[in-house]
C-alpha cells in the first residue's frame, strides 16, 4: 500500500500533514523520477487553484524542483486540464497541479502529469515515494550554475482560451444562440479566472456565480458538490442550462431548465449518443467506472454500444481508453475525458460538448436526459481509521452482511463497497428500485463498518 499517493495524487491538510518539507521532497523526488531518462535540463510547469495555502505549497514545490536543477514555469491560478494541455503544447517534461479538487479549503494536494499531459501511472508514483524516503535524495542536489531557474507565465492562460476558440468558435457561430442562456458556477475555484473569458469568446450568453475566490470559499456550498444554489438560480432566471465546475476545473455537472441534476452518467449517455450519430465514437464504446449507475450500462445495451468498466479513478478510465483506442469515458462525479481533445477530465470542455448537442439538436436539456433511465442509488460514507480501510475484507460480520446484500440485489440492483483513496472512509453504495429501502440497507451496513473499524 502506498504511503503518500492516493487515487488522485497526494491530498492532505495543508501545512500540517502536507507540510512544506514533505512537498519539497515530493518535488525533488518527482523531478528525478520524471526526468531521469532525458539528457537535457527538465522544464516543469506548476499550476494551482485558489486555496489560501496554494502559494505556500507552490513555493515549497518550486524550491524542490530548482534544487534538483529543473527549470520551473509558474502558471498561477489555472484549471487542472489547462495545465495538462499546456504540458503537451509546450513540450514540458512534466507538470504539477496544486489542488485538493472538490475538498474544502483547508486541504491541498499535489497531482503530477507526465510530458504527455496525463496523470502519471502508479509505478512512477511508487518510484517517487521510494525516493522521497531514501537517503539518495540528497545526491540529486544541483550546485553552482546547475541550480534551476523559475519564471512566472500566467499569460499562458490565454493559450487555453484559444484552445476552445479553435475547437468551437466557428461551429457555434452557425447556431441560433439568441435565446440561449447558461448559468455558470465556478465554485470560487480555478475556473473563476477563465470560464467567463471562454463563454464570452464563444458568444454564449451567461451568468457567472461563485467566481470571487478569497482563499477560503473554494467549494463552499457551491460548485459541482453543492448544486442547490445553481438549481434555484436556473429556475428563477429562466436559464436553459446550469453548469457547475469543481475547485480545480476537471469536473462538470449540469442542471436542466427545471433544476434537475445532470450527473456524469447522464452526460456520458447524451454525448456518446451524439458522437455515435456523428460517426465519431471510436470502437462504439463508452468507458466508465464501477461506481457508474446501472442505468448507464442498460443505456449502452439498449443502444448497441460496448460498455467497459474500470476501477474508480479517472486515471484508470484513461488507461483503458488509451489501451483500446476509445475516445469517451468518465465518472459519475463529472470527470469526463474526451481523448480527441485532452487526455484528462476538463469541466469547461464537457460543458461545451453538452451545449453543442443542445444547440445543434435544438432540444432542452431535460429532453436529452430521457435517453437514460437512472436507477435510485445511495452512497453512504462510513468513517473509519485510515489504517483499517482494507480490513473490511477480513471481518466476518461485515463480509456476511455484504454477501446477503449482494444476493438480494443480484437481479435488479448492485452493491459496491470501496475504501476511499483520499479520505478515512469506506464508501457503501447500493442501487435498487426503491430509494428508501436501499438507503436503510446502506445505512445499516455503514454502521456495522464504523462500529468494527473506527
Q: Can you describe what's shown?
A:
- There is one protein chain.
- This protein is of the alpha/beta class.
- It folds into three domains: 10-152, Alpha-D-Glucose-1,6-Bisphosphate, Chain A, domain 3; 159-371, Alpha-D-Glucose-1,6-Bisphosphate, Chain A, domain 3, CATH 3.40.120; 377-453, TATA-Binding Protein.
- Helix content is 37%, strand content 20%.
- It is built from 14 helices and 18 strands.
- The protein has helices at residues 20-35, 54-68, 80-89, 122-132, 157-172, 195-201, 228-236, 264-278, 294-302, 314-324, 347-361, 365-368, 396-408, 435-453, and strands at residues 10-13, 43-48, 71-77, 94-98, 107-113, 150-152, 181-185, 205-209, 241-245, 252-255, 261-262, 285-289, 306-310, 328-330, 336-338, 377-383, 414-419, 425-431.
- It has a six-stranded mixed beta sheet with strand order 1-5-4-2-3-6, with helices on both faces. Strands 8-7-9-10-11 form a five-stranded mixed beta sheet, sandwiched between helices. Strands 13-12-14-15 form a four-stranded mixed beta sheet, with helices on both faces.
- Helix 8 packs parallel to helix 9 and helix 13 runs antiparallel to helix 14.
Amino acid at each position: 500500500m502506498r504511503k503518500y499517493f492516493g487515487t488522485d495524487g497526494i491530498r492532505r491538510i495543508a501545512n500540517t500533514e502536507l507540510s512544506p518539507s514533505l512537498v519539497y521532497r515530493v518535488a525533488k523526488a518527482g523531478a528525478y523520477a520524471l526526468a531521469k531518462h532525458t539528457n537535457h535540463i527538465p522544464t516543469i510547469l506548476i499550476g494551482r487553484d485558489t486555496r489560501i495555502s496554494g502559494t505556500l505549497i507552490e513555493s515549497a514545490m518550486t524550491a524542490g524542483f530548482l534544487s534538483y536543477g529543473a527549470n520551473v514555469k509558474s502558471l498561477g491560478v489555472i484549471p487542472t486540464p489547462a495545465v495538462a494541455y499546456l504540458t503537451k503544447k509546450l513540450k514540458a517534461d512534466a507538470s504539477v497541479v496544486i489542488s485538493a479538487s472538490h475538498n474544502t479549503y483547508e486541504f491541498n494536494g499535489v497531482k503530477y502529469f507526465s510530458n504527455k499531459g496525463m496523470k502519471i501511472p502508479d509505478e512512477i508514483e511508487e518510484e517517487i515515494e521510494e525516493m522521497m524516503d531514501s537517503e539518495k535524495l540528497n545526491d540529486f542536489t544541483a550546485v553552482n550554475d546547475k541550480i534551476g531557474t523559475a519564471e512566472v507565465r500566467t499569460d499562458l492562460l490565454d493559450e487555453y482560451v484559444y484552445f476552445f476558440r479553435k475547437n468551437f468558435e466557428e461551429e457555434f457561430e452557425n447556431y441560433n444562440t439568441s435565446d440561449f442562456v447558461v448559468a455558470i458556477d465556478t465554485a470560487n475555484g480555478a475556473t473563476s479566472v477563465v470560464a467567463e473569458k471562454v463563454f464570452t469568446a464563444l458568444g454564449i450568453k451567461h451568468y457567472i456565480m461563485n467566481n470571487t475566490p478569497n482563499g477560503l470559499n473554494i467549494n463552499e456550498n457551491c460548485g459541482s458538490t453543492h448544486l442547490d444554489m445553481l438549481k434555484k438560480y436556473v429556475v428563477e432566471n429562466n436559464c436553459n442550462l446550469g453548469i457547475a465546475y469543481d475547485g480545480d476545473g476537471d469536473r462538470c455537472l449540469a442542471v436542466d431548465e427545471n433544476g434537475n441534476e445532470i450527473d456524469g452518467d447522464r452526460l456520458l449517455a447524451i454525448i456518446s449518443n451524439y458522437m455515435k450519430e456523428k460517426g465519431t465514437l471510436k470502437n462504439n464504446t463508452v468507458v466508465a467506472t464501477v461506481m457508474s449507475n446501472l442505468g448507464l450500462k442498460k443505456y449502452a445495451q439498449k443502444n448497441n454500444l460496448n460498455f467497459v468498466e474500470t476501477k474508480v479513478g479517472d486515471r484508470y478510465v484513461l488507461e483503458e481508453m488509451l489501451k483500446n483506442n476509445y475516445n469517451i469515458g468518465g465518472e459519475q462525479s463529472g470527470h469526463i475525458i474526451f481523448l480527441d481533445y485532452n487526455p484528462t477530465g476538463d469541466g469547461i470542455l464537457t460543458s461545451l460538448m453538452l451545449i453543442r448537442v443542445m444547440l445543434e439538436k435544438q432540444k432542452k436539456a431535460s429532453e436529452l436526459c430521457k435517453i437514460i433511465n437512472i436507477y435510485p442509488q445511495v452512497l453512504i460514507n462510513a468513517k473509519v481509521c485510515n489504517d483499517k480501510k482494507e480490513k473490511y475484507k477480513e471481518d466476518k460480520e461485515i463480509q456476511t452482511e455484504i454477501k446477503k446484500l449482494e444476493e438480494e440485489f443480484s437481479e435488479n440492483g448492485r452493491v459496491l463497497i470501496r475504501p476511499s483513496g483520499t479520505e478515512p472512509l469506506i464508501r457503501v453504495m447500493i442501487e435498487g428500485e426503491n430509494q428508501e429501502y436501499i438507503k436503510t440497507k446502506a445505512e445499516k451496513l455503514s454502521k456495522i463498518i464504523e462500529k468494527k473499524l473506527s
